[in-house]
Amino acid sequence: MKQLSDHDSLYLEPRQPVGDFQFDADVARVFPDMIRRSVPGYPVIVALLGILAARHVQPHTLCYDLGCSLGAASLSMARHIQQPGCRIVGVDNSSAMLQRCREILGQSRPRAPVDLMCADVLQVNIERASVVVLNFTLQFIDCTRRIELLANIHQGLVPGGALILSEKITFADPRQTERFTHLHHAFKGAEGYSDLEISQKRTALERVLYPETIETHLERLRAVGFSSCDVWFQCLNFMSILALK
Ligand code: GEK
Question: Structure pTM?
Answer without folding.
Answer: 0.97
